[in-house]
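Researcher: Here's the sequence for the chain we discussed earlier.
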Amino acid sequence: MIGVFIFALGVIALGECVNNCITAESVRQETERARLALDNRMAEIEAGSIATSKPLSDPLGDSFPGMTMRQVRHPVTAKNEKGDIIQGLYQVDLEVDWTTENQPQARKLSFYVLRTQ
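Model: Thanks. This is the structure I predict for it:
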């Protein structure tokens, strides 16, 4: 009887470990999808296909269900080697938000773009 009890405790503990591994893998996959979404948006902005002039907040749709992308642009004051102010230099902040097991998750990316318009 004691042996069966110890075996049952071991099986329950093993089941909990498997559950934790599955949860960790799910979170890892969602984080990878968020990073892919950030990478895609950065490439679109660098290519000039998405304007950065006004803040955006939109759901990402079927490819990234449950995720929302926020985009904000800030002017950067910087000077070149001659001491002249660089016109059209902006910092773009991207953030992807989603919920995993009732816990809010977010990943951010910031980069610089130079726009002459």
